[in-house]
Amino acid sequence: TQLVEEFKETAQLAVLDQDQVLYIDKREGVQPFRIASDVGMRLPVHCTALGKVLLAYQPESEIRRIIVQRGLQRFTRATICQPELLFAELKRIRDQGYAIDKGEIMDFLRCVAAPIRNGQTQVIAAISISGPISRMIGRRFNDIRDKVVRAAAEISKEMGYTVGGAIKEIL
């Protein structure tokens, strides 16, 4: 809610369920653009910021199993459809602590997501802000990204997560 109030864009909360992104909460932004997602909706993990964050923290064997069973369907020219490119993207996500969807499921959509951890350090969910690429650029995008990462860290702390330098640095 705080993210939506500050940026006027749509915020979403999702979990990994049945090898897909499952949207469990959504707060609609007030901008004249609606994100086509609803609570209960499922999307592939390889082409959304939420999905890539949730996938990035799975064991490699689990990632490979999901790729084999679900495939890497192309939605746009930007969709990652090669396993080796997806693995490189997932490593980048783990290194930086957030994921970006750069028009991978919809050409005009940009999304940034960060992982939410529990007290056992497991990634149990992810939070994101989505909007059209035209509003998700430059300094504004960097501010949104930083606030999403901070919100995920704060929620993780509330969930009992205390281990890791990222939360100490952010908070």
Main features:
171 residues; alpha+beta; 6 helices; 24% strand
How would you describe the overall organization of this protein?
By secondary structure, the protein is of the alpha+beta class. It contains six helices and six strands, in the order H-E-E-E-H-H-H-E-E-E-H-H. Strands 3-2-1-6-5-4 form a six-stranded antiparallel beta sheet. A hairpin with a 6-residue loop joins strand 4 and strand 5. Helix 2 (49-56) crosses helix 4. The longest helix is centred in the last third of the chain and has 21 residues, at 138-158. It is globular, with a radius of gyration of 15 Å.
Largest sheet: number of strands, sense, barrel closure: 6 strands, antiparallel
> What is the string of SSEs from the N terminus onward?
HEEEHHHEEEHH
**Any idea what the radius of gyration is?**
15 Å
Strand content: 15-25%
Number of helical segments?
A: 6
Overall shape: it is globular
The helix/strand class is alpha+beta
Low-confidence stretches: 165-171
> Helical residue percent?
25-40%
- Strand tally: 6
User: Residue-averaged pLDDT, rounded?
Assistant: 90
Amino-to-carboxy terminus distance: 19 Å
**Strand numbers in spatial order across the main sheet:** 3-2-1-6-5-4
Topology:
Layout: H1 2-7, E1 10-17, E2 20-27, E3 42-43, H2 49-56, H3 60-70, H4 83-96, E4 99-102, E5 109-117, E6 123-132, H5 138-158, H6 165-170
Antiparallel strand pairs: 1-2, 1-6, 2-3, 4-5, 5-6
Helix pairs in contact: 2-4
